[in-house]
Amino acid sequence: MTKSLSKGIFYALLVLFSLFFLIPFYVMVVTSLKPFDEVSIATMWQLPSAINLSSYAQAFAKLVPNFLNSLYIVIPATLISALLGSLNGYVLSKWKFKGSEWVFTALLFGMFIPYQSVLIPLIKTIQVLGLYNTIPGLVLTNVVYGIPLTTLMFRNFYASIPDSMIESAQIDGAGFIRIFRFIIIPLSITGFVVVSIWQFTNIWNEFLFAITITGSEQQPIMVALQNLAGSQIVEWNVQMAGAILAALPTMIVYIFAGRYFIQGLLAGSVKG
Amino acid sequence: MEATNTQKRDTLRQKKKPVSKDKVLAFLFLLPSLILIAVFVYGFIGWTGYVSVSNWNQLIPDMSFVGLDNFSSIFQTFRFQSDLRNMLFFTVFFIAGVVILGQFLAVLIDQKLKGESIFRNIFLFPMALSFVVTGVVWRWVLNPDTGMNIILDGLFGWTPGWYTDTTIVPTLQIGQIDFGIPLALIAVMIAAIWQMTGFSLAMYLAGLRGIPEELREAARMDGATERQIYFKVILPQLQPITFGVIVMMLHISLKIFDLIYTMTGPGANFVTDMPAVNMFETTFRGNYYAEGAAIAIVLLVLVAIFIVPYLIKSRKGEA
Taking every annotated instance into account, which residue ranges of this chain make up the domain ABC transmembrane type-1 (chain A) (predicted)? Predict the structure, then answer.
């Protein structure tokens, strides 16, 4: 009796909080499907009278080039930072040297800094390299500042590969590269999936570097969305359609690979 | 341990060179990343520090040394004083919200109810979104003329101004500013808690699942009620997780930029401004590079005070 009662209360609470969590999604979808003349302040919560895709047409026309920019940035940046992270994680977990723990800690600090504290030199350097307002400039930036996190994730991941495996491979005459190629890489497919998904999400959603390093032509989607939403003349239904378009890739990743996404979340949280 | 392994390998293979060659090779593969981080993190921080004591407060660089002038002038501005106040209250309530709500939802989901994965997925979903999207959507949901206020007006006849409210409670005159909680920040806190609760939920759920069933069994044998088991046995086990969540949320909260920038901006009377936003606008909109650098250094020091001990501690705990 009391057990089923408390179950009922638990369900009620979970449903209540779920509703709260779903509010923004509901508003986003419903508003984006309305034609402009139905987007009024008074009828915000109402469903559209008929599904209207004109706001999507407008949002797509404005945001598709930026969507592509984001893809051109996120794909190479994710791959390179995952590769570097896996190499670093391998060295820092299986080839420890004197002081390597401190090197790792110093590396890790890089993921906690407020990026404002490197922003002025970063822009000057990117300008000197001729990469200001370019996609390679943002790729470089995201790769560099992604290194601490990907290294951490792979290092935690490789800690579960027993050292005895490495030792017996060494006894069989395999060296640093062969062990990496034939033992570590095959064992870290999941690791690569987890890190790639997590980095994809991070870089896709990144805003500060994007807004400082790129101007209008090369802007990634998040900056374009902010500009779209920040201008007073763009209607709410178009803004919401734009928000959905900007969120779509990471939402799809979450829906189809949520398990790996959560693994990434846990692997990237240093250690409790 | 290391020494015995090396000895074992040496006696087995009767040669020393290949092992040390591999060690050098390993270090060489690590080196590019080390150089990049040394330059892009530590070098750039030093460079920012150099800018922060210079006279570069116009578009054209002027690196002549002015000591701590930029620091003393930012601390005297109404805006930066407001930032520090906002950051303090935002951080406290944001972290409390994420920790309490995440733990609460994790405990609910851990009751082995049917459909728990659906609930878990709903609560974690916002984690996949950008703060930019969150800001854009919540600005619409909490727009004082519509959204929540339609519901609140219908239910209670109450229409809060959300992020447009400039009230500060209580109002204590400190320095140039009114010290207290800016009510406009509540809107930002709601959005930020909505976005980040999934993080603590996932951490707590992993923690709860890691607690062996025997522990509960033993408590049950001793005659503890389910509620006592939770409060006396389970929750104390989660303390290290709470610590980890607080540290992760703390650095997100001190650095917060995207959400403020897209959702509210600095706000009237800077009621929703934050140091990170101030730094960005001072530097790149106002061309006060040296003052912007000074704000950045203050922000960095604030983050480092909490993060560096944590990093050192987790390194030692592992060894």
Answer: 67-257
